[in-house]
Amino acid sequence: MAFRFHDGRDWFFEARYGLFIHWGLYAIHGFHEQEQWRLGVPRAKYVKLIRRLNPAKFNPDEWLDLAQQSGMRYLCLTTKHHDGFCLWDTKQTAFNVMNSPYRKDLIAMLAEACHRRRFPLEFYYSVADWNHPNYPNQGRHHELSGPEKGDQPDLARYAAFMKEQIRELCTNYGEVHGLWWDMNVAEIRDPSIREMIRRLQPKAVINNRGPGEGDYSTPEREYDPAALHVPWFTKPTEACNSVGMRSWGYKKDEDYYAERFLLQSMDTVFAKGGNYLLNVGPKADGTIPPRSAKLLRALGQWLGKVQEALFNVEPATTLIEDRGVLLTRRGNTLYVHLASPPVGDSVVLKPLDQLPRRATLLNTGAAVKTANDLLPNHFREKKGYLRLRELPVHKLAGTVLVVKLEFDALPPTPPVSATGEAAVP
């Protein structure tokens, strides 16, 4: 593993790949998980959606079946999104699933299935809240334009409410493996919440978007290119993305990312030592849209073939000069990741010059041709460098190629600086 906490939280670095699920009242209309805010829906009108929530087809085992078929190893669900609606039997607000026609604790149902199958479960929780009367909506990003009738903005009271909800989630649902905060627009700072989570759930990892110090960073989609354009991550990182381009929650007419794009995104993050959390938005009835499920399974088929290059390995990109190629290694075995679309059918791994004992394309199991003969552009150096030749870049243009190179010995991997800049090999 590239990182360690040296306690019960190390499961996070071993799991690496998780299923993110955004689910709530917003699935009823199937527009966007921020429907209330983006369409300017008055709170009095939006809350009436609770009368229509009845996910009769929700089966948590079907969610877990899909996750495991796709190679995922943990799950994170939105317990409360920005609209303030809660998927569990909370005693802190009436705006929860128990007051819908469904009248069942969705979090309890999912937690039971996860525990029965030993599948780590994390809880997403939005700090921003468009329903709670004490939350200070001030028109900042991801906030209502201001308080609504009857509101009593009070940040201290809202923080106390939030802490009690987190206490419920960390007390009433067995073992919890993570707390995924989001949208701390009000910049609440309360270290006691983190301390409480640590005490109640020692295996829980905590991200960096909440009211206290986080265990790991969370670059989202492609919004943080600086976090992704480094040889490898110098701190624990979990990138997140969704299969849908327009929404994280269910969208009836969703546009989907290309399989090749998601593979590139996943492989880049994995090869740099990060975790990857990939999201789907279930429909209002509790089922995952068929196109989302099909895409997850396709990604899982690729992962099943190349996973030895992604799990229990170390980033090693600094062994070579070409920053368009990513490397991971395990001992004297090197894995070459062509996450970015290759420009040709060969790759030169300068300054490596020794030939491997064996070269295998993990995608197919086929042997890969290698050479270290002198190339015209290296004539001044008068030496050859390791070259992978005749790669099936046309036949397998829709996927990410990963090549396994087995050596008798390899030099140490040059380090990167604290800023992520690469040392020159």
CATH-defined superfamily of the largest domain: Glycosidases
Provide a count of the helices: 10
Largest sheet: 7 strands, parallel
Category by helix and strand content: alpha/beta
Q: Which CATH first-tier class of the largest domain would you pick?
A: Alpha Beta
User: Whole-number average pLDDT?
Assistant: 95
Order of helices and strands: HEHHHEHEHEHEHEHEHEEEEEEEE
- List low-pLDDT spans: none
Span of the ends, CA to CA: 22 Å
* CATH fold annotation of the largest domain: TIM Barrel
Beta-strand content estimate: 15-25%
Second CATH tier, the architecture of the largest domain = Alpha-Beta Barrel
The Rg value, from CA coordinates, equals: 24 Å
Tally of distinct domains: 2
Fraction in helix: 10-25%
Give the strand tally. Answer: 15
Q: Strand order across the biggest sheet?
A: 5-4-3-2-1-7-6
Overall shape: it is elongated
What does this structure look like?
With 425 residues, the chain is an alpha/beta fold. The chain folds into two domains: 8-309, TIM Barrel, CATH 3.20.20.80; 314-406, Sandwich (Immunoglobulin-like), CATH 2.60.40.1180. Helices cover 22% and strands 16% of the residues. It has ten helices and 15 strands. The protein has helices at residues 11-15, 35-38, 43-46, 60-69, 106-116, 155-171, 191-200, 225-228, 259-271, 290-306; strands at residues 17-21, 74-80, 121-126, 178-182, 205-206, 238-242, 275-280, 314-315, 326-330, 333-338, 347-348, 358-361, 369-371, 387-389, 401-406. A seven-stranded parallel β-sheet has the order 5-4-3-2-1-7-6. A five-stranded antiparallel β-sheet has the order 8-9-10-15-12. Helix 7 links the parallel strand 4 (178-182) and strand 5. Helix 6 (155-171) packs parallel to helix 7.
